[in-house]
Design brief:
heterodimer, A: mainly alpha, 14 helices, B: alpha/beta, two-stranded antiparallel sheet, 7% strand
């Protein structure tokens, strides 16, 4: 019987393989840490030429009218949702109403309490990392507002969930990753890789970057940058980049989804935004908004009145 | 040596073969470490490609390219597995008796048959091989017989064979081509061992003394030695070529250039015929896994292994045919009666094929012997060159030869795959898969060639952006792999081989098409003399790729610098460089098609 050759790989070769694996793991770990321009430009913004955002929108009569018309409708839409199914939407909408000191705060409070209980019990299945991030900023507001129910048990649960999130899983979530990272920073555990805006450069610097990104992902990009602008204090870069998105929207801003249109309108008062949105907003059917976008639009309106969610009380 | 002055290779007769590369332990370990890093970093790069870099708005472009990259990466991993380590079989003293080879107590010296196969080659060329075979020596008492196996049934060949004192063997038909020719000779001879030579093979006198020792292990079926093409044109030094046209200025320029990039020779072998990488690196490193396959010429075979395996395969084939017929007969008595009748009939119809009747009979027979379910045989690769032969000397001959290799291997992969048909070890299966994968690569390699043109014409990138993130993932992988290969195959050149590999797609696809359609694979004998003619037709697809890329570069430059209608400088730069590199690769085919030997090496 002939000798079958099994185990022909020597121990020395196996050792070399192990050394190679260790070196490769180190190299990959180190490469993952590399963020270009991270030393001089931790936010990865050196490529942004126009660093001055356009005029911010002020609360004029027209804006006030729109808010008065939309807020009750949006609150009604949220009130019709199941707090167990959409806890982050309910919490964010309630936080917006609370911040605005609007009547919808009373309307949404029972739902918000229900959502809080469910989150605190750890019974929520989050469909992705955006929802817990939104819940976290809402809960952070509750903590600062004496009128809100106690958010601490729920806050701990959400913070733990975000702690366990794999940073790599945020890759490709343009804009949203930056928002999620900054939200997670509220827990003291930021996703450092996405503090920077460098990964948005290929999309926003080239002429057709937004077109190539595709409508779904470019809408997410506007959501992420918009949320950064209307939630956190001192977000000038997010605002500048949102401006790029608003003015570079493929086919013109009148073609953009309503949530993007509102985020652009609520942040900027420049003609590039006013003109295309003049009819877009007045003719809009708010029921076309998804539950998530309903809460985002509600927050955008509040920001126009009272500033970003986490500024002040 | 009558008639040698006729031959173009006369000028190369005194060349000595390259020594087998030295096995250096620390270098092998360094190669293994670097190769592991390359594989891991490559996997990381592919993960990034699939998860974060696809251009979602151009999936028609993004997906094929990333699939091509993935399949190519699998091939790279298989190749690294193939090249992992050198495990030479320790040489043994040559056996004086057959008993030492069979593990029995028989004291007679071994009998050895040297087969020189021919079909249409010039008898005077075959004479050189027969004379070399006659000079082969062995221990006193051993019986060495030289046989000329002429499938051309030519009286002139018979006269030459008799002149040389060789036994002339022919047959009435060409059934089975070379494999059939060998079978016929095996039936008419009785040596314990058989040495196979092509018409142009010239054995060195000590081939048996250096290889027969391996047969002391009764499980060794064959020993393969490296093939050495001693006629590869070396070309002319750059100083001489440029000096001839431009005088002193040309010589000065040539010297300056070579100081920067090392020695350059013009007019050298344009076909990458040098088999040193294949034998000294690929085949040699399969030895440890018992997966070095037979390449025909310059190999020594144990007759018992060939026949035993052939008879077993014959019996299995008869059984299988009978089973196919009788399995649906329910009545046991009828089945038994039918089985007896059919077995006799099929036994008459089926033929015994010591060497598989196949266009790639050598690798096919290797698979059968390695994967013999009852007695898996061993092969040995002996790293020292012990014979010399001629290379294909023109594009037509080269194409025929490579097409034959590709179609033959793919035919085995499709119709009798060693991946699941034979009793092979996992390592052996992976080694054979490596060979098959390399020929399948024509299915995806063309994507790498056309991608830069698609981008430059359309401006649509297959990835989200040619950004620093792209380079961060791509460059570590490529650089690491290149360094690993440089260390792993130290001193054995392979750059031209890789260029040829990338441009092989027209022939590879044609081979695959032929196999899938079940068409017969043409079996023209590789010409052993230089053919003349215009071979540009044979490289028309490579020329088309070059032309399209060139046009795309012109078009993109016009858009960027004149019209100002594109602003993708980084994508432009990457794809222009990629395109120029592709043109450089394809230009090897153009050079091969128009190549003529330089005067100093021409036929006298």
């Amino acid at each position: 019987m002939s000798r079958r050759t099994s185990g022909w790989i020597t121990g020395r070769s196996q050792l070399a393989f192990l050394i190679g694996l260790i070196l490769a793991s180190g190299a990959i770990f180190w490469l993952e840490k590399i963020r270009f321009e991270s030393t001089d430009d931790p936010l990865g913004s050196f490529w942004i030429d126009q660093r001055q955002p356009p005029t911010a929108r002020v609360l004029d009569a027209g804006a006030r009218t729109l808010i008065e018309q939309w807020r009750p409708k949006l609150a009604d839409q949220v009130a019709a949702l199941s707090p167990t199914q959409y806890p982050s939407v309910v919490l964010l909408a309630y936080a917006s109403c609370l911040k605005a000191d609007a009547p919808c705060a009373t309307q949404l409070r029972p739902l918000a309490s229900e959502a809080l209980e469910q989150v605190a019990a750890g019974a929520t299945t989050w469909p992705g990392p955006l929802q817990p991030s939104l819940a976290l900023v809402a809960l952070t507001l509750f903590e600062r507002n004496v009128a809100a129910p106690d958010p601490r048990p729920a806050w701990q649960v959400v913070a733990r969930w975000l702690d366990g999130l794999d940073e790599w899983s945020l890759g490709g979530l343009h804009g949203l990753a930056q928002f999620i990272s900054r939200s997670a920073a509220l827990t003291g555990n930021e996703f450092a890789a996405f503090r920077s805006y460098a990964s948005l450069r290929p999309v926003l610097e080239t002429a057709d970057g937004l077109t190539r990104l595709g409508e779904v992902r470019v809408t997410d990009l506007s959501r992420g940058l918009g949320l950064l602008s209307i939630t956190f204090p001192r977000s000038p870069l997010a605002k500048i980049l949102l401006w790029h998105v608003c003015t570079g929207w493929p086919g013109g801003l009148e073609q953009a989804p309503l949530v993007t249109a509102v985020l652009c309108w609520s942040n900027f008062a420049a003609p590039e935004v006013n003109q295309p949105l003049a009819t877009r907003l007045s003719d809009s059917d708010l029921t076309e908004l998804s539950p998530l976008d309903t809460a985002i639009v509600l927050l955008a309106l509040t920001t126009l009145e009272r500033g970003p969610l986490l500024v002040g009380n | 040596m009558a008639g040698i002055s006729r031959w173009y290779f006369e000028a190369f007769e005194l060349r000595v073969p390259p020594a087998a590369s030295r096995h250096v332990v620390w270098r092998e370990m360094l190669w293994q470490i670097l190769a592991t890093v390359a594989v891991a970093v490559g996997a990381w790069y592919l993960y990034w490609r699939w998860s974060q870099s696809l251009n979602m708005d151009a999936l028609w472009f993004a997906i094929p390219l990333v699939v091509a990259e993935t399949l190519s990466f699998i091939g790279l991993v298989l190749m690294i597995f193939n090249l992992w380590q050198v495990t030479d079989t320790p040489p043994q003293p040559p056996p004086a008796t057959i008993g030492e080879c069979e593990g029995i107590d028989e004291q007679r010296p071994p009998r050895i048959d040297l087969f020189v196969t021919t079909y249409s080659e010039d008898p005077e060329l075959v004479r050189l091989g027969l004379e070399a075979a006659k000079r082969v020596t062995y221990l006193a008492g051993a019986e060495i017989k030289v046989h000329c196996l002429d499938d051309g049934r030519r009286p002139a060949m018979q006269r030459v064979a008799e002149d040389c004192g060789a036994n002339y063997i022919t047959r009435p038909s060409n059934e089975g081509y070379k494999a059939g020719n060998l079978r016929n000779a095996l039936e008419l001879t009785d040596g314990d061992f058989v040495v196979i030579c092509d018409a142009d093979t010239r054995l060195f006198p000590d081939i048996l003394e250096k290889t027969m020792g391996y047969f002391r292990d009764p499980s060794v079926a064959w020993v393969q030695t490296p093939q050495w093409f001693f006629d590869l044109p070396e070309g002319r030094p750059l100083e001489a070529a440029w000096g001839r046209r431009l005088g002193g200025l040309g010589r000065g320029l040539a010297r300056g250039l070579q100081k920067l990039v090392g020695p350059i020779r013009l007019g050298g072998d344009p076909f990458d015929n040098n088999p040193q990488f294949f034998f000294d690196v690929i085949q040699r490193r399969r030895n440890g896994a018992n997966a070095s396959f037979c390449c025909g010429a310059s190999s020594i075979h144990r007759r018992e292994a060939i026949w035993q395996s052939a008879l077993r395969a014959y019996a299995t084939a008869v059984d299988r045919k009978v089973d196919d017929f009788v399995k649906e007969v329910r009545d046991p008595e009828s089945r038994q009666a039918l089985e007896a009748q059919l077995r006799h009939q099929f036994a008459v119809d089926e033929i015994v094929t010591p060497y598989k009747f196949h266009v790639s009979e050598d690798i096919y027979t290797s698979i059968v012997l390695h994967g013999d379910p009852d007695r898996p045989w061993r092969s040995v690769y002996h790293p020292e060159v012990l014979s010399k032969m001629l290379s294909p000397q023109d594009m037509a001959s080269w194409t025929v030869q490579r097409f034959k290799y590709a179609a033959g291997t793919l035919d085995i992969a499709v119709h009798d795959s060693p991946l699941y048909r034979y009793k092979l070890t996992l390592s052996q299966r992976l080694m054979y898969l490596t060979t098959m994968w390399s020929y399948l690569s024509s299915l995806w390699n063309w994507m790498f060639l056309v991608s830069p043109a698609v981008y430059l014409f359309t401006g649509i990138p297959p990835i989200t952006a040619f950004s620093l993130e792209f380079f961060k993932h791509f460059l570590p992988f490529v650089i690491c792999y290149e360094i690993a290969l440089l260390v792993g195959a130290w001193g054995v050149p392979n750059s031209k081989g890789r260029a040829i590999f990338m441009g092989f797609f027209p022939y590879g696809l044609r081979a695959l098409w032929t196999v899938l359609l079940g068409k017969p694979i043409r079996f023209p004998v590789t010409p052993k003399e230089r053919q003349s003619g215009n071979f540009l037709r044979l490289v028309r697809w490579q020329l088309l790729v070059m032309l399209v890329i060139l046009l795309s570069i012109i078009w993109a430059s016009y858009e960027l610098f004149y019209l100002g209608s594109r602003s993708d400088e980084s994508g432009y730069a990457v794809n222009v460089l990629w395109g120029l590199y592709t043109i450089l690769l394809m230009s090897n085919y153009l050079r091969a098609a128009i190549w003529r030997p330089v005067e100093t090496e021409a036929t006298a």
